[in-house]
Batch of 4 targets.
Target 1
Amino acid sequence: MPYSTEFLLSAYRTMKTIREFEERCVKEFEGGNIPGFTHVSNGQEAIAVAACIDLSDKDIIGSTHRGHGHCIAKGCDVGGMMKEIMGRATGLCKGKGGSMHIADIDKGMLGANAIVGGGPPLVNGAALAAKTLGTKNVALSFNGDGSANQGTVFEAMNLAVVLKLPHVFVYENNGYAEGTAANYGVGSNSLTDRNAGFGMPAECVDGLDFFATYEVLKTATERARNGGGPTAIEAMCVRFDGHFIGDPQLYRGKDEIKNARKNQDCLKIFRERVIAEGWLKAAAMNAIDKEVMVEIETAVVDALAAPHPDPATDLMSDVYCSY
Amino acid sequence: MTNHSNNPTIGGKTSMKTIREAINDALREEMRRDPTVIILGEEVSGGAGCDGEDDAYGGVFGVTKGLMPEFGRERVIDTPISEAAIIGAAAGAANNGLRPVAELMFFDFIGVSFDQIFNQAAKFRYMFGGKSKTPMVIRGTVGGGWRAGAQHSSMLHSIVTHVAGLKVVMPANAYDAKGLMVQAIRDDDPVIFLEHKVMYDIACEVPDEQYSIPFGEASFPRQGNDVTIVAISNMVTHAITVADILAEEGIGCDVIDPRTVSPLDHEAILESVEVTGRLVIIDEGNPRCGLATDIAGIVAEHGFYSLKAPILTVTAPHTPVPFAPELEDAYLPNAEKLMVAVREVLAAGRSGA
């Protein structure tokens, strides 16, 4: 067996946690318990987990506005996240960040980022710090097929190559930049060919296949850790929900989402594979399913009961270290 | 007369230094003291990948000259012309154990990097619930007078002063430049450090040892009881000129140089106006939503009953910076324009308190 049981159970548990967290966010949003805009990543779980499962808290990731899955995969506390998304004082960021700005520096999570393309230049900085301080840590940025067209991302890729930074660029290509198709917005038609043009190894992988994605990312991460510089990985995937919760998704084809949930579900694909290979038993994963449901239920109940921030003390704090 | 003193005397040896040399000193000594301090930007050394001389520029104004030969290219990093990538790398590195000093060759280039400044670096700490710190410095050259045209001459301090989460520093002499740069590097928040490009060769006595000047404390290059003049950066030069001329006429100008515009020393300005009752603000920025109107607003709100005359402002007009010498000279505030305003405010309004 090429993977340890512990590894497989951990991967499954994290993917399932993301799935249930996101599905529950939709429900809580629709129930009026989540203010603002929320973008969920259900359907894309395999990439987040494949990218983060081997990383330590000292390795840094930068995320996107669709960042819940990346946070969970990087080890952020699910309860703290739910509180944050509901704007509570005991949330991961004291309710000052929200869904689009969740961060947890202690876990090496440099933040979701509500500016499309905002993250990669910053993740270069984390990589530069690792290189300068000689820590052997790596940095990894999540991007979408949308941010792939931002100038900041081009600049970040070029600088990463010039300075040979330990930065893995992950492109989650779910086919849609908000409501515009990637095959319209990416002029070159191939992100991977374009990424290779920056002078770094670039590969495209089936992001629904956890194992294939894990293997290419493992190679990329090891290359970065060993001083080999940046890599760009494009992972093809499917977004089960809209750009934001409540998006009517009129731009998507008839039955597209229904078919995706049936035939392009990375969790189902994972289960079928590990059972077929004889690596895990269905019962073990069913047990995890039950535990995850309890964990998410607890996170929601606790978050709904959590205190709201107090404007008298919380509005003006945390702007500066000193002023 | 206000109670604030001028720069405290630092013991030990001093040397005549230009602003350029003073900033270079501050950077060099901080880099020697703290291995996490790095410099990055375009041509901060110069010559990367070229066949000719290393350290060919030391920054286009020569401010970082000699640092790469001492600290190496790993700590004095020449970057591609990619301002968003420069600022982003500095901000990300600052969150991960370094104290980067990033250079924007001309501060006008915030246009292509502003997202990384105001949406990212400035907001990290707040968005992350106080968990992060971003100890970075962004150095940039500002101001007109070099016939450099509209895209290399702007005075954009008001734009960054507007942004919560940033500190904004604008030294007007070599002594302040060194002490404020040391503070900027040691500070745990993102600091915008704006250097006026016509001032680099202006010299004064500067202590050889390292010292820091706290942010938010104004200095008082001239003191007097008749009129308050608030000036920043190169405008301090004009304020001193006017104050010295009027001193010969027996008129005392209280010249206040805030040195940092975020945080701003409100108290120094309000206390001075309480004594003088008359206020002129000179600012090289454009007039709308600028530093001059900001200070005028603060005094109108908190010092209204001290005023004996309307507050006057002397600023650039509401235009881009022009190229032709006649036009740029007409654009820039100067001592003559300030003198007209000061005499007007002295003549206007109620006499006596």
Target 2
Amino acid sequence: MDLHFELPTTGDGAASVWDVAIVGGGPAGATAAMYAARADLRVIVLDKGLTASALGITSRIANYPGVPEEISGAELLRRMREQAQRFGAVFVQDKVQAVDLESDPKLLFANGGTYEARAVIIATGSMARGQRVKGEEELLGRGVSYCATCDGAFFRDQDVAVAGNTDEAVEEALFLTRFARTVHFLSPTPRIHAPEPLLHELSSQPNVRLYLGAALREVIGGDHVTGVRVALRDGGEQVLPVNGAFIYLQGGRPATDFLGGQLPLNETGCVRVDAEYRTTIPGVYAVGDVLCNHVKQAVVAAAEGAIAAMAVEKALRGRKQLAVDWSK
Amino acid sequence: MTLLNESVRREVRQALAAMTEPVRIVLFTQQEGGALECGFCRETRQLVEEVVALSDKLRLEVHDLVADQALASQMGIDKIPAIALLRDERPQPRDFGVRLFGIPSGYEFGTFIQDLVLVSQARHDLSARTLEQLAALTGPVHIQVFVTPTCPYCPRAVLLAHRLAIASERVRADMVEATEFPHLANRYSVYGVPRTVINEVIHIEGAVPEAALMDELMQVNDPAAMKRLRAEWGL
């Protein structure tokens, strides 16, 4: 076991209250960050990774205004983030697990520490999972895991499966290669949405078996996991004998679990907002695909991010009207 | 070579400035080459000594598990390395039952430092509902939270258990580093962390919110439920 001793950080190494914390770094979050930072607010964006967003996994985008060439969604998003960073926004790769939106300052509990902010913009999109696969819930903690870095050590010299197609799934699988005898990587799509160097690292590991277009159907086991049933691309099915099933699949539901019921949701699980993207809790805003009646286009999400950021600026500075400093 | 670099020492010093009362760190370990298997006894002692040097409100007391068996048993220490955190009140230090078994490294280092501040301030920050439930406890409660150093969710589960111990005389709460005590991980079938084990038989997966944990914990007051759970675990 390698020994490390560090205290959790809150983004810039100091315990500090941010003006705005934005959860999610897709087009809505990145644009909100750009506008808020340009208005001289201290902005932090907490994001799971580039391919956690719908735009990040879009292979080509040709209808984003001002970008006539066909570029990948990940590249467009990278440019948006870079632009926001130029105005001083801080992006941190971290996963928010829970929040306290009523406290002052508001608290975001993430893997890397607790972040404090005067205002929060929720821009987590709608790629959360809906239904779990058969056996998943029953075997949670008995071989089913959502955290390889937490639980990898329990699977030394054993066979495990990783289901997912994002950079998060690839990184977790790479962590598992240190412990497991064999890592079966099950990507539900023919292509894994992760940067090329990461993919290369994964495919060059001697103890990794890649299955592209392989859908996890069931986790099998009694006291603990003994296998996974997988639907293969050719229409067949296979049961892989494994002791661990690490699941990083995505879905099409608004990502609101981390809110712990603090914001009222409608029957389809969406957050409700007003014309300035304010939720029912003062100082808490929501933008992008996490909303209802939202047209799922990057340009729309970006526009909503801009409006919310201006509304935050207005609220924090105690003004009555939205304002943009056009001269900068 | 020191375990803590200068920047971490600076952050820890800053965090420990929030301490109000002194804290006595009681470390159970063994000498080099001791009879027991202890993968991280030496490093844990070094770590604790380095932390103690960062605040004048910290005192260190070191014991040998075998030589000081009576004290160990009185304090509920049965494996090493073990850390007990006592609020150094007069005339007697106050033992809330806050324990860490295994080296607090990785994410658990932050837990250890936060524990020092919480014990010093005798602070628990629990809800009124939780305090009511704790007041209704009729017997002792032993919480063990299994963790690994690489688990970012684990500190929340450990800190909640430790805050419950601070709030209630009936509760003692252990952090247990699962990879250092594989016999315990096997005994409780721990394949994932954090796993909170209450009085041996109530098992909770993940870092659950305070209210959810308390609802599970309060089963200890229900003899029929506990009997059923004990039977399920073959106890």
Target 3
Amino acid sequence: MHNKTVSELKKAIEKKEVSSLELTSLFINRIKNMDPELNSFITLTEEHAIDKAKIIDKEISKGILRPLSGIPLAQKDIFCTKDIKTTCGSKMLDNFISPYDATVVEKLNDAGMVIVGKTNMDEFAMGSSNETSFFGDVKNPWDKDYVPGGSSGGSAASVSARLIPCSTGTDTGGSIRQPASLTGICGIKPTYGRVSRFGMIAFASSLDQAGVFTRTAEDSAILLTHISGFDPKDSTSSKNPVPDYAADCTKKFKSLIIGIPSEFLDGLDDKVREVFDENIRILEKNGCKFKKISLKSSKLGVSAYQVVAPAECSSNLSRYDGVRFGYRAKNVKNIEELYKKSRSEAFGPEVKRRILIGTYALSAGYYDAYYLKAQKIRKIISNEFEDAFKEVDLILGPTTPDTAFKLGEKTNDPIAMYLSDVFTVSTNLAGLPAMSIPMGFKNNLPLGLQIIGNHFDESKILSLAHHYQNLTDWHTKSPQEN
Amino acid sequence: MWDPVIGLEIHVQLNTKSKIFSPASTDFGSDQNTQACAIDLGMPGVLPVLNEEAVKMAIKFGLAIGANISDNSIFARKNYFYPDLPKGYQISQYEIPIVEGGSINIIIDGQTKTINITRAHLEEDAGKSIHDLYPNETAIDLNRAGTPLIEIVSEPEMKSAAEAVQYLKNIHSLVRYLGISDGNMQEGSFRCDANISLMKKGSEVLGTRAEIKNINSFKFVENAINHEIQRQSDILDNGDNVKQETRLYDPSKDETRSMRSKEEANDYRYFPDPDLLPVSITSKLIEDIKSNMPELPSTKKDRFKAQYKLNDYDIDILTNNRELSEYFEKTIEGTDLNAKTTANWIITEVLALANKKNIGVSEYPVSYKNLKNLLSNVQSEVISSKQAKDVFERMWNNGEDAQYIIENEGMKQISDTDELNKIVDNIIKNNYKSVEEYQNGKDKLLGFFVGQVMKETKGKGNPKLINEILKVKLKK
């Protein structure tokens, strides 16, 4: 049962082959057995989940069926949940219980889903390996010496290990796609504004976007349909109508023109290149036309990102001052000391590093040289994508330059860590939707294929992903269980 | 030796129902922290949503001062740490404010002077730190956090405290006319910072300025500026330099003192707020607001002059306050009441009692309808103006109706000619000696006869009528 997809579980519940309580208990037991080693959850919400599952079962017995009735789900611990603590992976919020649900949480709750826990993540979503979490590293289910990627490492690892059929994530520079790639599952980051950011703890507001982890493209489409849409509580959310992504992606595949940017392949690892090329050949034989394109400025993406994201983060994280909620240092003499000690004691080194960089980039005399210049690069990157999409439907490349790296391998080299996002950040800068799906293995570690679409072209992305999964079986591979 | 150069930054709280970025109420005087929602508290994950009413009010102000309304103004974050600033940044406007340019006229010593306005931008107010509630702790009240403000920045074009106060008063009057603020200075709805520097007479080079923060009464503004001018000129006279700094005015000591120097000033690290889109304003919206603009103080002043032929002093008093001008006009409306008499009544009698109690027009115990009734009785000589003053006091103190008092107290003047004729005949009969003296040219005796009639009528005889009757009858 734990190998079933969301779409299969939906049918099983609707046909009453399994109850929500049975499903919920099954996954909670898997988590209890297997997660002590993986550490993909910060909070397990067993009681809450059992209660909800019972309510749903009662509804079903009365013939009330919601779109995703009774299907268990894990929420990334960046989404505020009423009555359940929300830590954002930080000591700062170790004691924080939000009085409201994030819009994403509310929508999935309303759709009938059962939250079984809150997943581990890099502190305040700052990291690419889940090693900055206050709650400890998450292990890659494929090899526990390796990282699962980040920042949504817990969400990815739990789905990959079949501890949960699906989970939510957020993606600021690759935080959904990179861990999806490194753990061999699907992860989609929709267009900026497609999903409300209300109640999703901000890292870099102009880049942050919520999305989901699943094992199949169809499941991603199902969940995305339910979390998308305009939210009056988020002025940056889009009023564009929300299509039925699941219906769209399972329609008969229409041939597409796909661009491959040479910048994504230059200097790529041989084995990764080999896997990627093999997949291109499969798609070429099955209705896709390929075209070489160039995204010259994409290599500037990481640099621009590493100015814009810290700048916004330095401001977004100012509210954690020990005054109203969260961690407060003890034995302080005055307000200055309260600020300094609370923030020094409760933020980890990566968060501090980014706050310092961001504060510097926004300072008088440096603003033009850093923040403004980064915004200009951002505009150029956007324009290049816009030009590319005049000629192609989608853009394809590897999600990451290589497979997962070993725990501890890059922790002392922040630049090397930042470069693991080299293929993902530019889509955040341009606000474009993108998805990572499993495309093969190197040394028994999964590799991801990244599909980038034009604004609000999620249907096209999902359609290609679904088509590809009909042609291959990478998405069905699961890590070995002890 | 020195010419003062003064610019003002005025913070005006807009009287929207809810806050500028949250649905919480803006009510003043509620229990601490009951008017602050998760958004005002800066809780994790919350987002601001712009209140359109605040935008409309800012546009209204911009149109009233003839400014340019930016069709894509930008909200920015002003970053600094302060316990009553929940997010660690204030959402304000920096590079592109909603209102740019514009001006306002003031009258100083009978001369009209134009003060140019640099900009007016929308922003959120901070909460309040309360230092005197607990012995060694500071309490925070976030009810005010997120209240919409417009900050109105003038050019440094005022040359004296008097000019600055006049400018401030005109802005105060304007925002109340526009109905965008209650202008309550005690409650902090209207407060200002003054930038003051001195320039050598004849020079065009500006001196170093000091900024005096958060002054909340006209009197304090005047005192603070005068004090600061004196302080700076003492420094300059001594050959020393004025330091650029922020100062605080202490009304209890009537002095300013240093708050922080330029070196200690915050670097606010302004950048566009990524949570808010540019404020897109259509020309249709501007047209809609334009067509619903109330009459502005300057227009009303001109109209009062033409329509009611009042003098400048009366007009100033009546029109500085929109409600008072409306009280005056409603009193007169639909009657043939004399405008000057009505104005005098309001300025002397009504305002005297109102000022004694320090109440606004909306709280007057005498409605304009009641005042209209009273003054009509005076004009048609039902009661004398002396009686009217007593009646008015009773109306004001006891909330009684003019007509009720006049009728129940038998105050109605005797204007019945027959009755008066009888009384006059009697008096002439009983005072034939005085009649003779009068007829022999002792005109002054007329007063004596009037007095006699008044005595007989217990003061209720119509003096004008009595005079006429006496003059005729005494001739015989």
Target 4
Amino acid sequence: MDCYSFDKVISDYIESNLSAKQKQEANEHLAQCPACSEKLADMSQLLGALRTLPRPVTRPDFESRLMARIERQKQQKESPFIHVFHEYSRVISVAAAVLLFVATSLFVYTSVVLPGSPASVPSASIRSVEPAAALPAAAAGVRPEQAGGVAEKTLPDTNRVQNPDYNSRIMMVNE
Amino acid sequence: MMDKEKIKFTDEELVARFQQGDERAYIELVKRYKDRLLNFVYRYLNSFEQSEDVVQDTLMKLYTSAHMYREIAKFSTWIFTIAANLAKSELRRLKRRRVVSIHTMGYDDSEYEIPSEDFDPEKETTSNYGEKQIQEAIDTLPDQFKTVIILREVQQLSYEEISQILGISIGTVKSRINRGRLRLQKLLKDLKVR
């Protein structure tokens, strides 16, 4: 047996798994090879060291943490909606933020950029409408002008914006 | 009732009881295996925090997948297979993270570790080899040798059990253990020289 062959059976030699013939060949090699003898002694020591390595232990609250995890999972199984909510909470928050942003943008766009939209009408003109005066006349089949009141809807929309005296006129007619 | 009897139950009997809905059997299995699994995973990952997490995941898996266990294999083999797979995934994740942190870490940054009581990684073993040296050498071993060395030398499992856990033949296990031991020996010699 040479050094290379001994390397191949060194574990079996240590664990006494060699046949009688193999063991004799290994012993003969060891008797004449100090390097392999040293390697064998060193290996035995290393294996002993590996077996006596300190053993870490789990922290005292290990079991309570595990049982808490199990409880949480049980609850999630019982209420799948909550589970889905927890699972996708980040996606849901982002979607809600995007929706809020879109809604706000739409509101700002319609009220500032689009002319003639209800939101863009000056608040004074809205206050000038006198439904109390206009509606009874309409209900009686009388034209608003005849009843002494002016209904805002009878005027074209352009008047609201183009005629600056519009509000004061309405106020005067109503008085 | 069960507390008095539990010593009599084998692992396989406990799993059978748990499969029938007896949660006390599960708790008993947790008590039996939590530290054994931690010992294996810790030597594999060399990080106490991450190892405890992996053991928690393994025992969670036992809780949710106990119905998948069949008594054709020993329970210990089955649970170590789960732990080994989870530990491998965790090690891959940690390696990726370490690669990233090399570029982002300052000199003062270090990983936060809370080792358990009575556990001192600096402690010298009974031989000339210090634990720290041995762990450093184990970390350097290629994965195929590292797993078998830990299962055999640290966990002291039989060749047959290792063969079942890793899904390889007994011949391959023996060969890997022999080559792994020689590599480890060489690595430790190199470490001593440094």
